[in-house]
Amino acid sequence: MSMNVDLSVDIGGLRLRNPVMPASGTFAEGLEKVMDFNRLGAFVTKTITRELRTGNPLPRVVEQPGSLINAIGIPSKGVPYFVNATLPHYRPFDTPLVVSISAPTSEGFASLAAELSAVPGIAAIEANISCPNIEEDGKAFAMRADSTERVTKALRAATHLPLWVKLTPNTGNVPEIALAAEASGADAVVVSNTILAMAIDLKTFKPSLGNIMGGLSGAAIKPIVLRQVFQCARAVRIPVIGCGGISTAEDAVEYMLAGASAVQVGTATFLQPAAMTTIIDGLRTFCMRREIARVTDLVGGVVIEEADEPDLAWVDPVAAS
């Protein structure tokens, strides 16, 4: 079977050749040795902070069945290093560069976004608001709608670039947070960051991570984040980017059927460095086999059949005879 499949997608005004990109923190310049960077939908950098950060104490990673818990802690060499040393690696490639940023305050986010928006070669800003927020006693901005609204408004005022806001799965109502980001000017939301988790070493009885808790990623979290993507995509009109446990083209298709317009691949790249290009090829093959001309036709295509009886009818008490 031979047919042309249009894999291109539009994410908040940024046109991508396909919907596959790395998750922040899982991608490095050296990977061009194992894959063609010009095939990716976008680059997403490791998160950049204003301050120099060494990261969390060791050990920082522990393997779990089907997953990984990491407590890297966003090590960062600051903005000048990124502009002078990191950015030049990406300039030769014809792939949009999305820069992930983090800050402890709304003002810090805004100033970082403003400075980077003036740097040539940056196509979009991804604001990692699932990080500690000094203004909220250390809680992540994305834990609450009001703090999400405040930081997103500050970011929107600071940059003309497409603004993607990365949410946390560790709150009870992710769609409410997505709506707050949309209402405050976000062009897309990334759902989501890692799930807060921990492990204990049974030899020492100590936590397995130096930071005690870390972020769970990998295949184990996919059903949870898939559900959150489904909920968010039904709540907002802006694009949702799915991120969590994607390692195959079939995973990517599931996310798109749930409502994701694009996907980010993280832990899978550690296990198979060329995972993203394999997923791109698999997406094309899937669409060809199903005679789907445009990958965007998958978005939100999950089939929900209406129940034959009203929801929760079965919980009504049986009338006494």
From TrEMBL:
Binding site for FMN: S24, K46, T47, N128, K166, G218, G244, G245, G266, T267
Record text on cofactor binding: Binds 1 FMN per subunit.
Listed cofactors: FMN
Active-site residues annotated for this sequence: C131 (nucleophile)
Transmembrane segments: none
MF terms in GO: dihydroorotate dehydrogenase (NAD+) activity
Keywords attached to this entry: Cytoplasm, Flavoprotein, FMN, Oxidoreductase, Pyrimidine biosynthesis
Lineage top rank: taxon: Bacteria
Pathway noted in the entry: Pyrimidine metabolism; UMP biosynthesis via de novo pathway
Enzyme Commission number(s) from the entry: 1.3.-.-
Subcellular location as annotated: Cytoplasm
Boundaries of every Dihydroorotate dehydrogenase catalytic domain copy: 7-285
EC category: oxidoreductase
Binding site for substrate: K46, N70, A71, I72, G73, I74, N128, N193, T194
Recorded catalytic activity of this chain's protein: (S)-dihydroorotate + A = orotate + AH2
Its biological purpose: Catalyzes the conversion of dihydroorotate to orotate.
Family annotation (HAMAP family): DHO_dh_type1
PANTHER family named among the record's database cross-references: DIHYDROOROTATE DEHYDROGENASE (FUMARATE), DIHYDROOROTATE DEHYDROGENASE (QUINONE), MITOCHONDRIAL-RELATED
Family named by the database record: Belongs to the dihydroorotate dehydrogenase family. Type 1 subfamily.
Descriptive protein name: Dihydroorotate dehydrogenase
Gene: pyrD
